[in-house]
């Protein structure tokens, strides 16, 4: 008896859906595979859209990874473009679709939902203006590019300071527009810790951009926007990028449930509540690998891996999806920001007792030409030393360190493991002790009590609440270069003979980046009655918080 041909229908044809289709064909050469895509394109590089607008990518065609004809020729997959899935009959195992060929039903043995997400657009007047855009599809990209070419705008406003918004802001700056970024949170790049948000803001400000945080746009006019405080900002073109919402309407209409995060519920095999329906990509709720919490992670990397696993399981495999860490990276003009796992603020919001170690060090040895300072922060569980997250920022080397941290998170490594990592070293590439090793050394010193640390966020709170006294041990020259608040100033070289000037209460030591204050701490360690901690990341980190409302 001939084996029955498996009918696989995939709703959504970009990251997760296209990956699922290609994987399904490799698994089963005989399966009937159909992609239903509401848009005009299948399998395009949506992460590359801002870089076409900036003209870093000049050929539009390079963003189209596959066509319906290509899918058919190479994989034998039928792609239905401009076709909307209107309903799912779970009992009959059919999908009703509406497209250029009319309305009809597609039968399935297995169904994969990969409808992704859509831009969240907050309520504001003027959204229907011809100069107002979002950036989600090739059509959006084309419209923005054409508008700039045809109308020659001089000013731009980006509503939202997340990944897409900031990448679009960079594109506008590169196209010569006077650009303003408006972010409702207290700092741009809200998933980051505030000092890293401040670093990113400085990169944009250095390029001439205006960064406004803690405010929203209430109305869009023909050549300006009005903020919630009544201020106006010039805007010949406006891009709204205020977040991503999951496309779960079809799934919910068919009786499938969503979780607390708003994403579609799936099990560890990416199967929904229906044994014949799987889901992948931005629309689903998954488990965060570090916190264990149910979250949505609308990123291309997890979406592609989920598509592969969903297709495998829809065709008979039992592959588990173990969650995501939220590893991400983006180019902030001449700098790079990257992070993985939990930030300090996210870890504390979850009630975790974490320590923080920050280093500001050259990305390779200083004596080799081209060395540039890299800021690296690791967050670790105090009781176990387990790494729970990391952030990095700088002109060079952020990607390398965050990939190391992401691997360490996947392996459940501790700060002791990080301290002993045998990383590649030669003068053009790194140092004998990499910044990751150095951050781990400082964390070990904190955990053992040899040199206790306090994060810049904690130090700022203790200082403002007058629960501790900050002693600035920088040189006079260092202090002039980076002036800070009314801290007591005792340069390191004067500390030993001026110890009588130190207050009796808890002391927080401050140096440029944390090293000289470490020396100061050790010199004061004989006094067992005195509580002394080192501000991790030093004045560099603390000064950044001065620009952010905590």
Structure description:
This protein is an alpha/beta fold and 550 residues long. It folds into 4 domains: 7-116 and 245-314, FAD/NAD(P)-binding domain (3-Layer(bba) Sandwich), CATH 3.50.50; 132-242, FAD/NAD(P)-binding domain; 334-448, FAD/NAD(P)-binding domain (3-Layer(bba) Sandwich), CATH 3.50.50; 453-545, Oxidized Rhodanese, domain 1 (3-Layer(aba) Sandwich), CATH 3.40.250.10. It is 28% helix and 25% strand. The protein is built from 16 helices and 31 strands. The strands form 8 sheets. It has a 5-stranded parallel β-sheet with strand order 3-2-1-7-19. A 5-stranded parallel β-sheet has the order 9-16-10-11-12, with helices on one face. A 5-stranded antiparallel β-sheet has the order 22-23-26-25-24, with helices on both faces. A hairpin with a 4-residue loop joins strand 4 (84-89) and strand 5. Helix 1 (15-27) runs parallel beside helix 8, helix 6 crosses helix 16 and helix 13 (456-464) crosses helix 16 (538-545). The mean pLDDT is 96.
| Radius of gyration computed on alpha carbons | 26 Å
CATH class of the largest domain: Alpha Beta
Task: State the domain count.
Answer: 4
Quantity of strands, as a count: 31
Whole-number average pLDDT? 96
Strand portion: 25-35%
Tertiary shape = globular
User: Which homologous superfamily in CATH is the superfamily of the largest domain?
Assistant: FAD/NAD(P)-binding domain
* Uncertain stretches: none
Euclidean distance between termini CA atoms: 70 Å
What CATH calls the topology of the largest domain is FAD/NAD(P)-binding domain
What structural class do the secondary elements suggest? Answer: alpha/beta
Strand order of the largest sheet: 3-2-1-7-19
Q: What is the number of helical segments per DSSP (H or I, 4+ residues)?
A: 16
Biggest beta sheet summary: 5 strands, parallel
**CATH architecture label of the largest domain:** 3-Layer(bba) Sandwich
Summarize the amount of helix as a percent range. Answer: 25-40%
